[in-house]
Amino acid sequence: MKHLEIHAHADPCRLPVRILADDPVMGQMLTALLEPYCMIAEEDTVLTVLCPGDGKLPPLPKRGRFLIICDEPYAQATDRIFVLSRPLDLEQFLETVFSLCAQEEYHGAAQEYRCNDRSKTVTYNGNTVSLTDKEYALFQILLDSIGEIVSKQKLTQLLWNEGNNNACQVYMTYLRGKLERIAGPGVLVSVRGKGYMLRRP
Fold first, then answer.
1. pLDDT classification of 105: cutoffs 50, 70, 90
2. Average of per-residue pLDDT values in the chain
3. Which of 83, 111, 139 finishes a domain?
4. At CA 195, angle to CA 190 and CA 200, rounded to 5?
5. Residue 85 belongs to a domain with what CATH number?
6. C-alpha 75: how far from its chain's center?
7. Cβ–Cβ under 8 Å, residues 196 and 152
């Protein structure tokens, strides 16, 4: 491997990064490249590096940033998806990772909600709370519209098929109590006659 010159403006950061590579050798190489600068993790990551070997992109979560390394640019770049083509320019790869992590750090990634779909947990500022399946689904809907009011009618339609109007209010009370343990009072507010709003951290 050639010597890599890391420029001063691309300061390494210790934010968590996940690597998903179909080719074990590629996975080991990317891990070796990033380990001195980032935390390699499986969960609660700010960036996922994907290197699919079969040309098929797996379903991506609604949140987080993704750096895709592929032979052909079959993935469309967006504000969350970034694409690098093979053969991989290692300096460009590191510069891109540093830039994306720096952006996350600038926007206060440590102060944002982090979700674990498998364990149904939510982490904020280092504090974690466990949710039931229904609470977690409710939180996901509110998180997708963070800072905006979500009507009770919409929540009821999505989660209870309009069969139980009281269920939404009951589960909102449960969810509010749990979120306040990690994010403090007022994190989940009821807007009279309109619905509910998850406030930005």
1. low
2. 80
3. 111
4. 60
5. 3.40.50.2300
6. 19
7. yes
